[in-house]
Amino acid sequence: MADLAAAETARKGAVTGKTHEDQARAWRRWCEWCDSVGITEDKCLDGCTKPQRIKLMGAFSMALRGGRFSGQAYDTLAEGTVRGAISYVAQTFRDNDRPNPTKDEDGELGRLLSRLYRSFRNDDPNPVQQKALPACVLRELAKLNSSETQKATSQLSIGAFFFAMRSCEYLKVPQAEKRRTDVLRLRNIRFFKNGREMTHNNPWLEYADCVSVTFEWQKKDERMDTVTQMASRDLILCGVRQWSAVVKRIWSYPGATEDTPVSAVWKNGKMEHITSKEMTLALRAAVLSIGEDILGIKAEEVGTHSIRSGAAMSMYLGECPVYTIMMIGRWSSDAFLLYIRKQVEQFSHNVSIRMLRFESFRHIPDRAPQISCLDPRQRNHPDNAETRRNIGGNSSRQAQLPAFSLFN
Fold this sequence. Notes:
Strand order of the largest sheet: 2-1-3-4
Radius of gyration: 27 Å
CATH topology of the largest domain: hpI Integrase, Chain A
Shape: globular
Structural class: alpha+beta
Helix content: 25-40%
Number of domains: 2
Distance between the termini: 52 Å
Order of helices and strands: HHHHHHHEEEEHEEHHHHHH
CATH architecture of the largest domain: Orthogonal Bundle
Number of strands: 6
CATH class of the largest domain: Mainly Alpha
CATH superfamily of the largest domain: Intergrase catalytic core
Largest sheet: 4 strands, antiparallel
């Protein structure tokens, strides 16, 4: 029994506290909806068939979509929010040794739910994404350094830019204790000169060749990931200079240790932290200072995520290889492409010229053999597995190759 209890404790630690809260909230809403429609005893739907479970999940999705269980500020929930809540309910079913109520007999998402989600997505407004921030905005922000808070905000913004950081990695954000990502601390910032590490109290720290930042625990469960940036030789827009300024400033505070977060700032006679809200206000002020018409973006379109997006855009415009962008920004997939804004004027720089390099090209005649109408590998063939999945059916009707086939 002790092993069972230990396994349960370990299982709960696999996800963050926020995930547990979201799952519990989704299950409470499911139970509330079941009570409202008369399902008071069988909330795990043990007495229902798979098609019935899918229909009930669809009805619950409509209730969520209409904001029935949300506050007055939410009259319609987005498709992603509804889908997430349904997924949490399905996880609770699985946690209690029940089948996934959203899957059909083929183990796929039920056709009813799939169509419902697509309908929600079609009706949703276009997602509003924060605009990529050019480096000139950070240079403008650096001019505002009359207070300790302004200095800290500028240093952190430029330092974060060169590492394409998430806001929770260098700022105080809401519900930080429920996030997987750890905020950076002084011990995570290291400087090197001629291959040798420099101590934080070195008076020549800002003249280091490079700065290395170690991300102890990240969003995708990656641990102890170290990224290094060389000095840019710019007096302001330089990761080495700005991170050295952050380190020196924090070490000057009473009570600072290696475990002190990089977001620390001395305010009101004590050590506090730069928040994501303060950073957003500072970035928007810098945008207004330069001019919205010059930048082509509005101040309200800028947020802390604009720094990460701007870093990806700047690396792309600087013709950095794709793998370099992914490694600096710690993207494990092509998700970084979401940060490359096609609306940026310089995005298509020289593309039109390159398109005219070969004004004429010649096709080589195909010599492909004629495909037999009996070959199930062609599209829309009734024995094609993808076709079978699109028209529904069950596992007994799934296409299977015979022991001997002419089209292996």
